[in-house]
Write a structure and sequence with these properties.
The complex is a heterodimer.
Chain A lengths: L13 H4 L2 H17 L3 H18 L4 H6 L1 H18 L5 E5 L2 E4 H27 L2 H10 L4 H29 L8 H33 L18 H26 L1
Antiparallel strand pairs in A: 1-2
Chain B lengths: L9 E9 L8 E8 L4 E5 L6 H9 L1 H5 L3 E8 L2 E2 L5 H4 L3 E4 L12 H11 L4 H15 L14 H13 L5 E5 L7 H16 L3 E5 L12 E6 L2 E6 L1 H15 L5 H12 L11 H8 L20 E13 L2 E12 L3 E6 L5 H8 L7 E6 L2 E2 L5 H4 L3 E4 L12 H11 L5 H15 L14 H13 L6 E5 L7 H16 L3 E5 L3 H7 L2 E6 L2 E6 L1 H4 L3 H6 L6 H11 L11 H7 L2
Classes of the chains: A mainly alpha, B alpha/beta.
């Protein structure tokens, strides 16, 4: 009954209208460019552009992004914090009490934080706006053997089902009460159990799924037919070219300004 | 029908099958044939080999899941032992119990096209196949919908359409209505009969035999992996009906009454009824006496434990689950919350245990506003057993599972824990399973352990059970109900959320009917089943027993008012 965190949401938007392959290519461009950017500033700019794309061009509600923010920012924050701690600073920026904040660790931390956040947000945007079947058709159009194409994207199909399972397990555990243990030990036990229950049930269901799909002829032949055809779309090409120009310009500008 | 198609579609010739790494056979010496265009029912208690038989016909065993096959299985002329699953897929389509996990794509029409695409059917041919399949199941309007926007019944129908599009002559349906509300179940049953009319051969595993037993061409009755009886339904019921009742097969209530009256000598063998209409005929000469069940039940007068006034709940601005419900539950009641899938029943249960908080209106639990209860604290007063009891288990053995609950309730003395766990294991009839992993128990035992983990240690005054009979055969259900009745005698209030109308009719004092987040009816089940409007609105359907009683009364036969079980019907017959 609760909202799906990571699933295709049907909407009429520029990004939704773009064909699946262009969107996949767009994610690749964004990720490659992010590795080319050298400072936290360019990455922050790229992240802002992505956020704008998500909110206004893909019409993803802020609420949806907020709800998955632990996924987008959690690991990125830890990675950023790690680099903040290990980077030696020489240029003081400001002080909080007696604690001095230096420019270098802040920039290093920011650079790592934004790099991961960009990659995750771009992938989520692809998931939110793309019908996985279209992706499969697109990849088959490129000549990728269909078993591989399906294996990657069929997993996405089951995220909402797994989410539902996790929610059910959490609710069921919540009402079991807490045996006399330290809170940390209790939390650890619960996590252990979430994993156990979700994995056991997940494996059982994965087996059912694999069997069911095979019984429907999946993998029977090296090729299969597709009842819908792949078409490049104008909005897809627009998205790819706009981001290519933007990324190249940003990389060139950054290199130029850093060298001068 | 038989003479027009001489070659049978399915042949099992002395089939014995061992599952992977098992030493006892799941099927032994099973032989039968299925005629083309026939409707075949596969019946038997849980674990009797029905699902194994279904998987054999599609080659899932032994080809995908392993196992040892002796004897010969022929499907559409193909020997299963040497035919690949993909080639068998052209002859036999299997619809799984929970089809949502068999879907590979996101959209209704893509899902239907998935099978034909895999079989390399040309594009031009797939389009009409998709259209026809969706038309047959009545989903044409939903062809562009996303799979997760469908209701439970529509998901089942999509499962049917996906199998139909592959155009196999044989369709195998394993419990296709296990989790559907009664009216949706009826709609799926009508679809199955329509498919048979279109020439499909159907193998159906279902506990809802009421609507099929008379329509079926063939019944195969399995117990312990062996065929006990097979043939025309009437013949099988005559031969083995009492045996079926003993081992825990659900038979239609009129049939069960017929069998038991015949055993008692009140009914002659020629008139054993399979349907309500036949029962009306067969039972019309009977006369009834007033029994002690005619004593009206007393109204519960215990304290009010739960009180809701204009209770509302919304998951988000677009999804409102409860639209103002009001009711009160008193100590010692046994009540059921019923209604179609998505009516708001589970949401209500979550509000009652504090997992959700009301968005508006009043909900008082044990005299205190629900918003002020903490979940863990409330768990000492009110217990919820989820539909899948596995979700609640936290430990590696049954013993630990029960001791965990005791620890959570503040019992710390090891000797006391030991004594109380042993006592509970005895009540649950699980003495031999103290060291078994909870996940490894039978479905019935899991459900009972689920209830016990919530109640051991005392304190809880209210027990809520979500779909207590889901996936349970008759014997398991009876044992669970015995256990629940013991709890009630100990003063515990029990609330059940269920689609099982037999359960409601037989055990429940009060039914709350919900539809679209509102309460449509709150009262006794007997009156409910006479209110056609509410029955229709809430997607319910009276039980066969209830329909029979109505018919008998309409014939002018004086039937005692409070007959609500087969048992009481038989007692009342002179």
């Amino acid at each position: 009954m609760s909202e799906q965190l990571l699933a295709y949401v049907e909407k009429d938007s520029l990004i939704h209208r773009a064909d699946a392959l262009s969107k996949l290519l767009w994610v690749v461009i964004v990720v490659v460019a992010t590795f080319q950017f050298q400072t936290a500033y360019t990455r922050a700019l790229m992240f802002s552009v992505l956020l704008f794309t998500a909110l206004f061009l893909a019409k993803v509600p802020l609420r949806s992004i907020w709800r998955v923010s632990p996924l987008i920012f959690g690991v990125a924050f830890l990675l950023g914090a790690f680099h903040y701690v290990v980077t030696k600073g020489t240029t003081p920026l400001f002080t909080i009490g007696s604690y001095v904040v230096y420019r270098e660790p802040l920039e290093a931390g920011g650079a790592y934080f934004f790099r991961l956040a960009i990659m995750v947000l771009a992938s989520f945007l692809l998931i939110w706006t793309t019908d996985t079947y279209q992706l499969m058709v697109g990849l088959a159009y490129l000549g990728l053997p269909y078993r591989y194409a399906f294996a990657i994207f069929m997993a996405l199909r089951y995220i909402p089902l797994i989410q539902r399972e996790v929610e059910a397990v959490r609710a069921a555990h919540a009402i079991r009460g807490k045996a006399a243990q330290s809170p940390l030990k209790h939390r650890f036990r619960l996590w252990q159990r979430y994993l156990f229950t979700v994995i056991v049930n997940g494996l059982r269901k994965a087996e059912n799924t694999a069997v069911a799909i095979e019984a429907r002829g999946f993998g029977a032949y090296p090729e299969r037919t597709y009842w819908k055809e792949f078409h490049w779309t104008r909005s897809g090409l627009l998205l790819v070219s706009a981001f290519t120009v933007f990324c190249v310009a940003l990389i060139v500008w950054e290199r130029f300004s850093l060298s001068s | 029908m038989a003479s027009s198609s001489p070659a049978p579609l399915v042949v099992f010739d002395r089939v014995t099958f061992y599952h992977f790494e098992r030493t006892t056979p799941a099927l032994s010496e099973v032989s039968f044939v299925l005629r083309r265009g026939s409707l075949n029912l596969l019946v038997g208690p849980s674990g009797c080999g029905k699902s194994t038989l279904c998987m054999l016909m599609t080659g899932i065993v032994p080809h995908l899941l392993g196992g040892v096959l002796k004897g010969r299985v022929l499907v559409d002329g193909k020997d299963v032992a040497n035919t690949a699953v993909k080639d068998l897929a052209l002859s036999a389509g299997l619809l799984f119990q929970d089809p949502e996990w068999m879907f590979a794509t996101l959209r209704v029409d893509d899902e239907v096209a998935f099978g034909p695409e895999n079989l390399k059917i040309p594009k031009a041919e797939i389009h009409p196949r998709v259209e026809n399949a969706l038309e047959t199941v009545g989903l044409s309007r939903f062809r562009h919908h996303l799979v997760w926007a469908l209701s439970g019944g529509q998901i089942q129908k999509l499962g049917f359409a996906s199998v139909l599009a592959m155009q196999p002559p044989l369709m195998i349906l394993d419990e296709p209505t296990a989790n559907l509300d009664p009216a949706t179940t009826h709609a799926v049953h009508e679809l199955i009969l329509r498919l048979r009319q279109q020439g499909k051969t159907i193998v159906l595993v279902s506990k809802e035999l009421d609507e099929f037993i008379a329509e079926a061409d063939n019944v195969i009755y399995l117990a312990d992996g062996k065929i006990i009886a097979q043939g025309q339904p009437r013949k099988v019921i005559h031969q083995a009906g009492l045996h079926m009742l003993q081992v825990g097969v659900w038979l239609p209530e009129p049939t069960e009454i017929g069998l038991r009256l015949r055993k008692r000598g009140t009914l002659s063998t020629e008139t054993l009824p399979l349907t309500v209409a036949e029962a009306k005929q067969a039972f019309s000469p009977l006369s009834f006496t007033a029994t002690q069940s005619d004593v009206p039940r007393s109204k519960p007068s215990g304290d009010v434990l739960i009180e809701a006034e204009n209770l509302q709940y919304a998951y988000n601005p677009k999804v409102t689950a409860l639209r103002g419900v009001s009711f009160a539950v008193r100590q010692g009641e046994l009540l059921a919350i019923i209604g179609q899938n998505g009516a708001g029943k589970s949401t209500l249960a979550k509000l009652l245990v504090g997992l959700l908080k009301p968005t508006d209106g009043v909900l008082r639990l044990f005299g205190k506003d629900a918003r002020h209860w903490k979940v863990a604290e409330l768990a000492n007063h009110i217990a919820l057993v989820f539909q899948n009891p596995e979700h609640q288990f936290l430990c590696d053995t049954v013993f630990e599972e029960l001791s965990y609950s005791l620890l959570a309730k503040g019992v710390t003395d090891p000797a006391e824990i030991q004594a109380r766990v042993v006592e509970t294991l005895r009540e649950l009839d699980l003495q031999g399973d103290a060291q078994t992993h909870p996940f490894a128990l039978s479905e019935g035992a899991k459900r009972r352990l689920g209830v016990a983990t919530m109640l051991v240690g005392g304190g809880a005054q209210v027990l809520i059970v979500d779909e207590p009979t889901y996936g349970q055969d008759r014997r398991m259900t009876e044992r669970l109900m015995e256990y629940i009745n013991q709890l009630r005698q100990a003063g515990i209030t029990v609330i059940m959320i269920t689609h099982d109308m037999r359960l409601v009719e037989a055990h429940i004092d009060r039914a709350i009917v919900m539809a679209e987040g509102r309460i449509l009816y709150d009262g006794d089940p007997q009156t409910l089943f006479t209110l056609e409007d509410i029955i229709r609105q809430a997607n319910l359907r009276p039980t066969a027993l209830n329909r029979l009683l109505t018919d008998l009364r309409q014939q002018g036969i004086s039937v005692p008012a409070h007959i609500n079980t087969v048992e009481r019907f038989i007692q009342a017959v002179q």
